[in-house]
Each structure stands twice: as structure tokens, then as C-alpha cells.
Specification:
97 residues, mainly beta, two-stranded antiparallel sheet
Length: 97
């Protein structure tokens, strides 16, 4: 909720205040994606993930990532544009957004 107060004084030294109360709703989208391991040897794995946030032609904003209904901590994969990584069940997974 935002409260905006406006005060002013007239020549008669009166003070009036106007308050505006409004609710602001943040809209975010959910995106289904697949994350993959990149070991380069042995068994590779993949997971279905849900990415919450917004994506435009100019930027991406991720608010959270879920795997099997639980949130995971993710970080950028530096050197690879729009690629992120997270650890799950002992494996390191990568996804692009």
C-alpha cells in the first residue's frame, strides 16, 4: 500500500492533507523449462523446473526457481549469457532463460 501525503499552506495559514491509499499488485509469469547437467562424462541428467519472473526482449528478471515444488538457490553461470546454475540432489544443473 502506498500513502501519498500532500500538504500546502494558503495565505490564511491553513494546512490541508490529502491521502491516497491504493494497492499495488506485482505481476510475474511462470515458465516451464528443463535444466541439464553438463559433466561431459558418465550419466547426464535433466530436471523439469519452473522459473518465476519476467522476460522481455531486453532483459530477464528471475524471482525464483522451483524443482519438484521446492525452491532452489540459483546463480548466473558467468561467461554464458542468460545461463544459470543450481545444485540439486548432488548434481550441478544449468538452464537458460
Amino acid at each position: 500500500m502506498f500513502i501519498i501525503g500532500i500538504s500546502y499552506s494558503s495565505e490564511a495559514k491553513e494546512t490541508k492533507e490529502i491521502k491516497l491509499n491504493t494497492n499495488v499488485e506485482v505481476i510475474q509469469n511462470s515458465y516451464a523449462a528443463t535444466a541439464y547437467t553438463r559433466k561431459g562424462y558418465g550419466q547426464e541428467y535433466s530436471l523439469n523446473i519452473t522459473i518465476y519472473g519476467n522476460s522481455t526482449g531486453y532483459s530477464n528478471n528471475i524471482t525464483s526457481v522451483e524443482v519438484k515444488g521446492g525452491s532452489v538457490n540459483y546463480s548466473p553461470d558467468y561467461g554464458n549469457n542468460n545461463t544459470y546454475k543450481f545444485s540439486y540432489d548432488g548434481e550441478l544443473y544449468y538452464f537458460t532463460f
